[in-house]
Here is the input.
Amino acid sequence: MITVLIHHKVSDFNTWKPVFDSTFQFRHSMGEDGYKLFRSLTDPHDVTLMLSFFSAEAAEKFVNSDALMQRMKEAGVIGEPTVRILGEVLMARRTAAD
Here is the structure.
């Protein structure tokens, strides 16, 4: 599994979130399989996304798309986002027996 990690600041989360939600089909068409959305506990303008992709090629195409950058701008992303494409090496889950 490939993860695209995007970290950025937004001018207003309540403006940013509907734009993010409106890109659901766009992201899926680009190969996104799912996502997690995180928001800083101390800074409401600090947003991190973990987007899952089946292939590195699809992830690269997504992060380099003009449409993504345009939608970020529309949503009120402030400054340059930090974008990383990561390959999963290991996943572990804790159980009550641990």
